[in-house]
Structures are given as structure tokens and as C-alpha cells.
Amino acid sequence: MTSYTRTSEQFNVSADAFEAAAGVADDTARAELDLIAAALSDPARSMPLLDGAEVTKGWFQQPDAECIYVALNHGRDRSKGTVLRFAKFLLQHERLWDETQIAGNAGFSMRYSDESLVALSMSYPFLAAAVTTRIDTLRSLIRRRQVAEDLIAQFHEVLNRDDFGARPSSDFQRQPIRKPTIANAPSWRKRGAA
Fold this sequence. Notes:
The structure is a single chain. The protein has six helices and no strands. It is mainly alpha-helical. The chain has a single domain (16-156), classed as DNAb Helicase, Chain A (Orthogonal Bundle).
């Protein structure tokens, strides 16, 4: 993240906020695809790990990752080849299929071909620890995004409220304004007298 020099005249929060949000979105997209690739390495052994962590379709914001997760979930007790055929069908239905994609584009493009889908499924050997680590990474990023969305909603609510100039509510008692007094100079004595 780029750091900016701050002065009293210039404080641009929006550039930092946009950069941070874009970074979280990029990290989340990468984490989704990493989890999908790790799970595709062995769908039959990966799905119980995903189920145990309560991973659902709602975890995936990227349409390609969501399609492949649905294929994994549907083909949990079938072979890897069958899961890849399910994924191909869903990707074609979502118009994310392009026969011209090469195997090297797996993970860099949201469009897939037979070669790139197979390459994605072979990008990791199956390791239960790799799957659970990627689940934890994605869960953490989802929580960050949710907290940020909640804060943005609160920010918009505060900015759009009309009641800041309204009278205080009955449960809030306004304190009377006190006149400042000088402790060792009462009003009835001469200034400086003891």
C-alpha cells in the first residue's frame, strides 16, 4: 500500500480507502481460486474439509469460482473427471467457457477451456493442510470485507441523517452553560486583593 505524506492542509482518505478496498478484493479473488484449485486436486477428500468448515456457495464472489464450487459440491462422491465435466457445463452456462484459452491461463483468466480447467485441477497436490489453510485465509478475508461493508454502511447512515440539528431527546438532559470563573478573584472583591 502506498503511503502518502500528510499535511494539515491535505488529508485524502478516499485514495487510501479505495486502494485498501481494491487490495482486499484482489486478495479475496486470489484466495477463492486457490481454495478451488486445492479442493479440485482431490474432490472426494476435499469436500469433507469444506463441509466441516461450513464453506458454502456464498463464500465465492467470483463467478468462475462459484461455478467450480457448485460442481465440487454436486460431484462430491464422484471422480475428478466427472467434477470437471460438471464444472465445464456450469462455466459454459455462465458464458465463462472459451476453447481458445491455453493451460497457462488457469488462474489468470475467468474464462476456461478443457486445458485450463485441467491445469487448474492439477496445480496443487492434495494436502489436507493446504485445503484448511486456504479455507482459513478466505474466511479471514471475508470477515475483513464484511466489517468494511458494515463500517461503510454506518458511515453512509451518519452522513445521510437529518437529525443532527434537532432538539435532544427526552432521555438526554442538556447541561446548563456555566460562566467561567476565576477561583481566586471573586466578583465582589477588587482584582488582586486577598
